[in-house]
Structures are given as C-alpha cells and as structure tokens.
Amino acid sequence: MFLFPFDLESSILTIAAAIFCGGTSRRFGGPKGLAKLGGQSLIERAIGRLRPQVNALALCAGEDAELYRSIGATLVPDPLAGKEGPASALLGALNWAAPEHKWLATAPCDMPFLPEDLVARLSAEATPDKPCFAASRSGNHYTVALWPTNLLPAVRSLITDRRERALHRLLTALSARTCNLDDLNLRTFLNVNSKEDLRAAEELLTGEDR
C-alpha cells in the first residue's frame, strides 16, 4: 500500500498524466506508439495503464499528432519548433496541466509493462518543489517521472533561456529525487526501441496481460 505524501492524497483528482509518443523512431522504422502488442497498440496499452491512476491524460505526439487523433485522447502540441524531443514535450505537457492540476506524471509510449500503481509509487518520493523519476535495476528512467506543475516557470526557463534539451539535466538542475523501483520485475521498464524489442515484449506477455 503506497500512501500519498503531503496533500497528494486529498488532491488525487489534480494529478494529470502525459504520454510521450513523438520522436523519429529511426531504429523502429515508424511511429512506435501505433505498433501492435498482444492485439493492442503500444499507445493503447500505455493509456490503459495510466488513465486509471489520474484524472486527466494527454498525448504529446509532436509532429505525429495527426497519426494519433483517432485514439480520442487530448493531444498536446510541442511549444518548440522542430524535433526538440522530450524536453519540448514536457514543456507542452506542463503548459497543459498547470492551470488545473498540481502534479504531472509522465511516461513514454514504448514501455508496455509499466506498473498499475506507478503514480502512487512516484508520489511516495514526491515533494511539492522537486520532481522525482523512476530508477530500477536496469537504470534510470527519466521519462517516467512526477512533476509538480508549479515548476513550469523553472522548466520553461531551463528549456528556452538555457536551451536545455536533455531530461536528465533538467531533473538534475531541479534537484530531482529518485524513486527506487528495484522490487519490480525487470520487464517493467522494457523499452521497445526496435522490432526485436517488440518481439521480446510479445514473448513476455502472459494470458493475463493480453
């Protein structure tokens, strides 16, 4: 049982989530979020995992937004021109979430086994003025994070004034906390970057996952 610290428990309905599904996907050869795994697209699996944990959810698809319009989820535009990666997606997501939500959870579309209590786990390490990101035996996972939306001005300054584009450097600059998830199965953070990864994920599916 994971309890929400500070005012998170009483403000659970003010947690939003954004799924990063833009990017060039060169190794994969196309938009990863639309690839099928166990009869569902990766983006549908990501939505299914995250939506029950928050009260609002959006997709950050960048220049691929039209490809995801039929999914029916809110599409958040990247505020920076060109292919600026997850930093631009994060800034767009915070712009979207900040007016109504105190917290923003982020995750990529290509981790099909993220836990169904991810937000609660991240919340256990959250503070009102510092983001936290997931870490496991397989490494640090900077796109899997929980951000206080009151950090929007600081994030905007780092991205637009200092031209910071790497999520790990943004997190370091904001003194981010680490959420250690070593107890989870190694497959939890399997990242589908190639067709070989997708085949590996298919092999890991159980009857319950399908």
Give the ordered list of helices and strands.
EEEHEHEHEHEEHHEH
**Helix amount, in percent?**
25-40%
- Rounded mean pLDDT score: 88
Number of strands: 9
What structural category do the secondary elements indicate? alpha/beta
The count of helical stretches stands at 7
Which features does this protein show?
single chain, 210 residues, alpha/beta, 7-stranded mixed beta sheet, two-stranded antiparallel sheet, 7 helices, 9 strands
What's the short story on this structure?
The protein has helices at residues 42-50, 65-68, 86-97, 118-123, 152-161, 167-173, 195-204; strands at residues 15-20, 36-37, 40-41, 56-60, 74-75, 103-108, 132-136, 139-148, 177-180.
Overview of the molecule:
By secondary structure, the protein is an alpha/beta fold. Helix content is 28%, strand content 20%. It has helices at residues 42-50, 65-68, 86-97, 118-123, 152-161, 167-173, 195-204, and strands at 15-20, 36-37, 40-41, 56-60, 74-75, 103-108, 132-136, 139-148, 177-180. The strands form two sheets. It has a seven-stranded mixed beta sheet with strand order 5-4-1-6-8-7-9, sandwiched between helices. Strands 2-3 form a two-stranded antiparallel sheet. Helix 3 (86-97) packs antiparallel against helix 5 (152-161). The longest helix is centred in the middle third of the chain and has 12 residues, at 86-97.
